[in-house]
Specification:
single chain, alpha+beta, Rossmann fold, Tumour Suppressor Smad4, 18% helix, 42% strand, elongated, binds NADP nicotinamide-adenine-dinucleotide phosphate
Length: 267
């Protein structure tokens, strides 16, 4: 008989670690082998914590195809589906296949530098492109190769639909139902004067289009932040941002309702 493998991750709060211990015992009693690391042979990934812990798990596992479920020990979790006290019910429904997989799109950016290097960053929530702290940044923005604006401001945030309730919302972007597959491009503190003209609202792009960003030649430090992970670059020639081919397969149960979560979190 083949092994039933489950990988389990947690953040470092005492509560999450206690919950993980209890769940691990239950899973072992049910005949599963429980790993504290990612394995391609695992049939399920479990993440104990809040949305931040969920993002960390996705990055640690390098955006796995394996179904993943979040056990919520944090604040209201948008990714997290199950409360620790409902774990027994969860495992019964999981074993009898009473769930759906929500396929979440991700966003990627390719940074090309003057020395010919290309680096790819992927985000489940968003990617931001900013300058040095407290300095405005200037770049030319195109959509599928067609020039659209000369941006000036703190930077640009490109959010997935699932990420629309995170940083995107704080900078004035719209909440998007994750059933819509699109990228939302939201300016961060855009300058709009007689000297500089930038869009002040979000732009919504269908998933097949690519956003091109060319920094002005005077810009020498650019920061790319994917889901809170910051990388600095010098001498950037071009940045392309687009919908990635990688997806996250999130386990949802029949009573899942995105708009109920939105109401509970924001109203
Ligand atoms: P953090 O700064 O410690 O926490 C960010 C907060 O965003 C947490 O309360 C987290 O929920 C929540 N969150 C994460 N993803 C969400 C989503 N899809 N919808 C609604 N809320 C969400 O950073 P972190 O925990 O490492 O998470 C990184 C994320 O922080 C980034 O992807 C970015 O979206 C967000 N962020 C937000 C701001 C802002 O709003 N001004 C600034 C920087 C970064 P939990 O409490 O459940 O973990």
């Amino acid at each position: 008989m083949s092994e039933k493998l489950i990988s389990i991750f947690t953040n470092e709060t005492q509560h999450s670690m206690d919950v993980k211990q209890v769940l691990t015992k239950k899973l072992i009693n049910l005949g599963y082998t429980v790993l504290n690391e990612f394995s391609k042979d695992a049939e399920l990934v479990i993440c104990v914590g809040g949305d931040g812990a969920f993002l960390e798990t996705i990055h640690k596992c390098d955006f796995p195809n394996t179904p993943i479920v979040g056990i919520n020990t944090g604040h209201l979790g948008f990714f997290q589906e199950v409360l620790p006290e409902d774990f027994d019910k969860f495992i019964r429904e999981y074993e009898s296949g009473k769930y759906t997989l929500q396929k979440l799109s991700t966003v990627e950016c390719i940074v090309s530098t003057a020395d010919g290097q290309k680096n790819v960053h992927t985000g489940l929530n968003e990617i931001t492109i900013t300058g040095r702290k407290s300095y405005s940044i200037h770049f030319d923005i195109s959509i599928d190769g067609k020039p659209i604006e000369n941006f000036s401001g703190d930077g640009i945030l490109v959010a997935t639909s699932a990420g629309s309730t995170a940083y995107n919302y704080s900078v004035g972007g719209s909440i998007v139902d994750p059933r819509l597959d699109l990228l939302q491009v939201t300016p961060i503190a855009p300058m709009n004067t007689t000297a500089y003209r930038s869009f002040t609202s979000s732009i919504l792009l269908p998933s097949e289009l690519t956003l091109g960003i060319v920094p002005e030649s005077s810009e020498n430090c650019i920061y790319i932040t994917n889901d809170g992970i910051e990388t600095g670059y010098c001498n950037v020639k071009e940045i392309e941002v687009r919908t990635s081919k990688r997806h996250v397969n999130l386990i949802r149960f029949n009573d899942y309702d995105f708009w109920n979560k939105v109401k509970d979190k924001f109203l």
